[in-house]
Design brief:
Number of strands: 17
Shape: elongated
Structural class: alpha/beta
Helix content: 25-40%
Strand content: 15-25%
Bound molecules: adenosine-5'-diphosphate, magnesium ion
Length: 404
């Protein structure tokens, strides 16, 4: 754990520092609907500006295909960043090239510019290492040093994350430090009782996380779509609910492993079964041993944990000292099936100890259900990155900053 931090860059006054942020915010018709990621980038940017650095911010937005596309322009982000910083943010309408160079060269100490979307250039995400190296070299011309602070992309081997960090003296920013501190507390020294709540759609997405966390936790609560594969593994019939037949053996393996380790895997006792997948579906609560006893028989789909399960999960969450939650308990996007997710989020906000929400949809779920970020210990800005970290994977964007 020898991550190079900002201090390792020495005195940055008057130096040009490139900062890779993850400013990939949701936009609707050019309007930013959630500026959480911009806010998360402020501590590092403010620190560098206060130290008199000339700050050049780079980021991606959305998934353009290696060429400019107006709807993925970072221009609205530059405006919002300026408001939040209370400083002028110069915006370069190209990522590299003469216009970008002249904007960067005109910056004085304590001034900041944002360059246009990195993914307008094919080199950023190219599979060809030489192309990534070449693009990183062009970016490197803008700076004397590089700060990596886009936690949401550290699991990607991309030019601005990996090759650029090799091209310049480089260090991690404050956001990456904060994210790693929390993830480290979840893996290296969690306070007990430690409860992990997993949901979402698929078991197969979460196998790595289950495998890595199982030996570390007190109990593992399973909801969401993946609960049905667990229930089926125990012999229950699950009707039209999500079922991954090819994971039944793996799931049985986890159940045995948990028993051997003395870890409790807690499965739902009831579920909300719907006539079909839709907000207008008819639905009723059923015990897990009679999921096919609804009027829709084998077609009925379980779309949420039931109220008895929600109460039991909430109780366990509240009484834990460390809780990590990934994956909604039901199809929270549809009103009638948001109850389980809401109950768990409410309980999580009452935890005395460390409570962490990880996963893109989970973070979106708690916000959509009206919970403020500060009601939880931490909401990770990087869904994929935090999950890969918790799987014990090595992340290229961290490795290159000295992390082991
Ligand atoms: P995250 O992004 O937080 O890791 P996932 O991507 O694993 O979460 O899962 C999110 C999705 O899981 C949501 O879109 C939600 O609708 C879906 N989901 C949750 N419960 C069920 C269920 N019972 N059946 C089908 N889909 C479900
Ligand atoms: Mg997701």
């Amino acid at each position: 754990m020898t991550l190079r931090t900002l201090d390792s860059l020495g005195d940055v006054s008057g130096k040009s520092v490139i900062v890779r942020c993850d400013l990939n915010v949701p936009l609707e018709e050019g309007r930013i609907t959630d500026d959480g990621r911009i806010r998360a980038s402020l501590p590092t940017l403010t620190r560098l500006l206060d130290q008199g650095a000339r700050v050049v911010v780079i980021s991606h937005l959305g998934r353009p295909k290696g060429e400019p596309e107006a709807k993925y322009s970072l221009a609205p982000v530059a405006a919002r960043l300026g408001e939040l910083l209370g400083r002028e943010v110069a915006f370069s309408p190209e990522t590299v090239g003469d216009a970008a160079t002249s904007i960067v060269e005109s910056l004085r100490g304590g001034e900041i510019a944002l360059l246009e979307n990195l993914r307008f250039s094919p080199g950023e995400t190219s599979k060809d290492e030489a192309e990534r190296v070449a693009f990183a070299a062009r970016l490197a011309e803008f700076g004397d040093a590089f700060v990596s602070d886009g936690f949401g992309v550290v699991h990607r081997r991309q030019a601005s994350v990996y090759e650029l960090a090799k091209a310049l003296p480089s260090a991690a920013g404050l956001l990456i430090e904060a994210e790693l501190d929390v993830l480290d507390r979840l893996t290296a020294r969690p306070e007990k009782p430690y409860t992990v709540v997993l949901g979402g759609s698929k078991v197969s997405d979460k196998l790595g996380v289950i495998g890595h966390l199982l030996p570390r936790v007190t109990s593992l609560l399973i909801g969401g779509g993946m609960m049905f594969t667990f229930l089926a593994a125990l012999g229950h019939r699950v009707g039209g609910s999500l079922l991954e037949e090819d994971q039944l053996d793996t799931v049985r393996g986890y159940l045995q492993e948990a028993e051997r380790l003395g870890v409790e895997i807690v499965l739902p006792t009831d579920a909300v079964v719907a006539s079909h997948f839709g907000g207008d579906a008819e639905h009723e609560v059923r015990r897990v041993d009679e999921l096919e006893a609804t009027p829709w028989g084998e077609k009925g789909m379980g779309l949420d944990i039931g109220p008895e399960t929600a109460a039991a999960f909430a109780e366990r969450v509240r009484s834990s000292r460390t809780v990590f939650w990934n994956g909604p308990m039901g199809v929270f996007e549809l009103g009638p099936f948001a109850g389980g997710t809401k109950a768990v989020a409410e309980a999580l906000s009452q935890v005395e100890g460390l409570s962490v929400v990880g996963g893109g949809d989970s973070a979106a779920a708690v916000r959509a259900l009206g919970f403020d970020d500060d009601r939880f210990g931490h909401i990770s800005t990087g869904g994929g990155a935090s999950l890969e970290f918790l799987e014990g994977a090595s992340l290229p964007g961290l490795e290159v900053l000295g992390w082991q």
